[in-house]
Amino acid sequence: MCFSCYYDELYIPEIPEIPEDQIVSFKDDIQPIFTANCISCHNTTIANPDLREGNSYNAIVPEYVIKGDAENSELFQKLPGNNHPIETGSPLDVDEIALIKGWIDQGAENN
What we know:
Helix content: 25-40%
Radius of gyration: 15 Å
Order of helices and strands: HHHH
Number of helices: 4
Shape: globular
Largest sheet: none
Distance between the termini: 56 Å
Number of domains: 1
Strand content: under 5%
């Protein structure tokens, strides 16, 4: 016997837009997200790219990031909670995803 319900649909939250006057910093905004959420796997011993501090920018730009185009950047497409398998931990929250998207769309600077 099988049961189904319309509540079984996957809920995908809307990603907020970063205000145009807000500059997203790789060092201050993006690296802390990687450090808190990603380096347990993305540290060269388990999975690439290496997202540890000091390595992450060169590991993702330009191979995983298309500067100015988050929607087509592999990094953005595979964020936890976006399209990334979550074996351990939890998905990134919408504000963290928004920061990463904003940083890429702003040109993915090493700032």
